[in-house]
Amino acid sequence: MSGLILVADDDEDICLALDLLLSSAGYQVVTVQDPKLLMQASVQKPDLVLLDMNFRSDTTSGQEGLVLLEQLNAEHIPVILMTAWASVELAVQGMLQGARHFIQKPWHNRQLLQLVKQQLEHQQLQQENQQLKQLLLPEETAWIAVSPVMQQLEQLVRQVAATDANILILGENGTGKSLLAQRIHQFSQRQQASFIGVNMAAIPETLFEAELFGHEKGAFTDAKQRRVGRFALAHQGTLFLDEIGCLPLHLQPKLLRVLESGDYEAVGASQSQHSNARIISATNADLAQMVHKGQFRQDLLYRLNTLVLQMPALRQRKADIPALAELAITHFCQKYRKPLMKLTKEAQHQLQSYSWPGNIRELNHVIERAVLLSHGTSLDSSALVMQGMVVPEQAAVQSLDLASMEQALIRKALAQSGNQLTEAAVLLGITRHALARRLEKYQMQGV
Ligand SMILES: Nc1ncnc2c1ncn2[C@@H]1O[C@H](COP(=O)(O)OP(=O)(O)OP(=O)(O)O)[C@@H](O)[C@H]1O
């Protein structure tokens, strides 16, 4: 086992002895005899510090070792305290303040080497654990914001994230409201605490209180165990109330109370709890209109909409479409183990000409289907099937012009039959003769 060990003791002989012992065991050793130099030496980020409890420049301040310990703790540098028999109490205090261990002077070489080895191994395990945890965390979701309207929103998000104000996100379905809420949390000072999401449309009315506030064991028939509510889980963090417009009117006062005071009671509990969760809510409903119709409480709306962010529809941010499509292509090619595909120019144009009523969610579905249907490495427009998209024969239907519709249907039948009049007539449900008459009328010669 190797590592850099910093020995801090004002006794020169002790420094020398430890230097010899630890170096011969393969460690790199730095010694300091002056407390003022300890923190300077610690910038080398030692793996361990052996700190003398009585390491002090004057004889009156017995607490100097503890002060240095605190500074090393703040730098996340592990410390083993060294103490004489007389100051074991002080060493115990040091352990309580975060020292990893202590050794008594005079020490046994074998024991000291064993302890150093253990501490360094422990340190390494902790680091590996941390790395593994990071691997297990969901990858950060990519956030595409190239268009001018999204660039503006980005700026606003960074400003409002830092405040603790409640935020209401408005926007059509599938525009990315949930993702935006997570992004605000990531940029906020609460990023280390939890982001807890709850979809108001998905909670049955009878379970609303239990879900948000928790319940005690036995509070109602199905309450077999005590349950922690979302407000408690989001304490110090962010609570995202999605589809807030779906919260029934009679339940709104309960939410209003916790938003006003932070206080609430779990179902079946006699004591109040407090949550300081920051509230981000989202909806595609017109809440002002709902207030007008008496479906949503005005006072609750005021609590929720301290700041309002408008998520643009995809058709208002067409410049983002190619990047969003590419992101989805990469995702689905990986998911379905297909070679990475590239959009043809024509396909890209087609995606940008469509109005996307289902926004990014619809775009992702269209790309998923296209990836499944395509072979090779290019994804062309024929694989893109958008609902409600105006294909030539539908154009006729949309124009409500009977003659153009008839021509479009004849063209389709001729194409499908390979210009075989009898077969095309069967497809159209008319006689061959009737078809021939229409071809003449419209001066059509086949396709
Ligand atoms: N800026 C973005 N960059 C990349 N992907 C995005 C972006 N915004 C949204 N998405 C993706 O679009 C999909 C829909 O996003 P999200 O669920 O956040 O929308 P929503 O507005 O909350 O939808 P709903 O109103 O239905 O709850 C998700 O797959 C999300 O990952």
The average pLDDT value, as a whole number, equals 86
CATH topology of the largest domain: Rossmann fold
- End-to-end distance, in Å? 81 Å
**Can you tell me the overall shape?**
elongated
GO molecular function: ATP binding; sequence-specific DNA binding
Keywords: ATP-binding, Nucleotide-binding, Phosphoprotein, Transcription, Transcription regulation
Protein name: Sigma-54-dependent Fis family transcriptional regulator
InterPro entries: AAA+_ATPase (IPR003593), AAA_lid_NorR (IPR058031), CheY-like_superfamily (IPR011006), Homeodomain-like_sf (IPR009057), HTH_Fis (IPR002197), P-loop_NTPase (IPR027417), Sig_transdc_resp-reg_receiver (IPR001789), Sigma_54_int (IPR002078)
Give the helix/strand layout:
Layout: E1 4-8, H1 12-24, E2 28-32, H2 35-41, E3 48-52, H3 64-74, E4 79-84, H4 88-96, E5 101-105, H5 109-136, H6 148-161, E6 167-170, H7 177-187, E7 195-199, H8 208-213, E8 214-215, E9 227-228, H9 230-233, E10 238-242, H10 252-261, E11 263-265, E12 272-274, E13 278-283, H11 287-292, H12 298-304, E14 307-310, H13 321-335, E15 342-343, H14 345-353, H15 359-373, E16 378-379, H16 392-399, H17 402-417, H18 421-428, H19 432-441
Parallel strand pairs: 1-2, 1-3, 3-4, 4-5, 6-13, 6-14, 7-10, 10-13, 15-16
Antiparallel strand pairs: 8-9, 11-12
Helix pairs in contact: 6-7, 10-12, 13-15, 16-17, 17-18, 18-19
Bound molecules: adenosine-5'-triphosphate.
Adenosine-5'-triphosphate (ATP) binds at residues 141-145, 171, 173-179, 242, 284, 324, 327, 360-361, 364.
